[in-house]
Amino acid sequence: MSSSDTKIITVIGSGLIGRSWAMVFASGGYSVKIYDNQPGQSTKAIVEIKKQLQELEDAQMLRGEATALQQVALISSYDDLSQALEGAFFVQECVFEQLEVKQSIFQDIERLVGKDVILSSSTSCLVPSNVFSKVQNRSRCLVSHPVNPPYYVKLVELVPHPETAPAVMDTTHTLMTKVGQAPVRLRKEIDGFALNRVQAAIIAESWRLVQDGIISVKDIDLVMSEGLGMRYAFIGPMETMHLNAPEGLEDYMKRYGPGIQRVLTSFGPVPDFCGEGSKGIINASKTTKRAVKSN
C-alpha cells in the first residue's frame, strides 16, 4: 500500500473537524490540502486555522516542532477537487454526517486518485460498509473517527471495512501515531464503534438513575467528573480491574463478578430520551448550567 513518505494529505471539508485534522496533520510536518465545494470556504478555513495556531503558540500549547507560521504555510486551500487530490497519499473526509453525501464524495474521489491512495472517513456513527458501499476498491477504505476536537483529544478509532487490507490499517495507524494522535484498532465494524457504545451505556444508565429519582442531574455529573472520570482519565476499565485485586483481573472477577452481574441484571430498558419523562431532566440540566455560569 501507499507510503507516508509522500507528504501530501487531502482533507475534504473545511468545517470544525476538517480544520482540526488539517492542524493535526500540519503539526506532524505534512502538506495539507483542504477542499470545500463551497467557493471560498477553504480559504476562510485557513484564516481561522492561522488564528488558532497563533493563539496556541502564544499559550505554549502548539503541537509539533515547527512554528505556527511554518505550520500554516503547509496548508493550502482548493475549490477544485481534482487539484486538491493531486499528489495525496491519504484522504481524510470530513463532510456532513449524511450517508448519501459521503457516498457521493467518495465516488468522486475514487475517480480522481490512484489505486493505492487511502480513503478515510471521519464519520462518528456510520459503519464503513455503508459509507464505502459505492466505492469499487474498498480494500483501501476505513473510518478514522476522531474525538471532537481532534487537536486536543487524541483518540482516533480506526474501523475497517470488511474488505480493508491489513496494510491500510497499518499505514493509517503509523500516520496517526506520527502526528501525535492515539489510534486504536477495531477488528471489525460495529454500530457506534467503541467510544460511542461505551458513552451510550453511561448516558443510558445516568439518565435512568435521574429519571427514577435515584440521583439529581448535578450529582450524577459529579459521579463522573469527581469519580469515574478522574480515574478513567489515567487508566481504563480493564487496567482498573486488574489493579484493584491482589492477583489481577481474574482475581477481581472472582471477588466482584457476581455483584457486577447482579447490578447489570437490574438495569432498566433503553430510556426514551425525547419522551414526556425527559422534560424534568432537561429542565434540571438547564438550571445546573445556569448555576455553573453564574459562579
UniProtKB/TrEMBL annotation:
Residues 9-188 form the 3-hydroxyacyl-CoA dehydrogenase NAD binding domain. Residues 192-257 form the 3-hydroxyacyl-CoA dehydrogenase C-terminal domain. InterPro entries: 3-OHacyl-CoA_DH, 3-OHacyl-CoA_DH_CS, 3-OHacyl-CoA_DH_NAD-bd, 3HC_DH_C, 6-PGluconate_DH-like_C_sf, 6PGD_dom2, NAD(P)-bd_dom_sf. Pfam families: 3HCDH, 3HCDH_N. The record marks 145 as: Important for catalytic activity. Its EC number is 1.1.1.45. GO terms for biological process: fatty acid metabolic process. Keywords: Cytoplasm, NAD, Oxidoreductase, Phosphoprotein. It is found in: Cytoplasm. GO terms for cellular component: cytoplasm. It comes from the Eukaryota. Its main location: cytoplasm. The keyword Mitochondrion does not apply. GO terms for molecular function: L-gulonate 3-dehydrogenase activity; NAD+ binding. PANTHER family: 3-HYDROXYACYL-COA DEHYDROGENASE FAMILY PROTEIN, LAMBDA-CRYSTALLIN HOMOLOG. Belongs to the 3-hydroxyacyl-CoA dehydrogenase family. Homodimer. This is L-gulonate 3-dehydrogenase. The lineage of its organism: Eukaryota, Metazoa, Chordata, Craniata, Vertebrata.
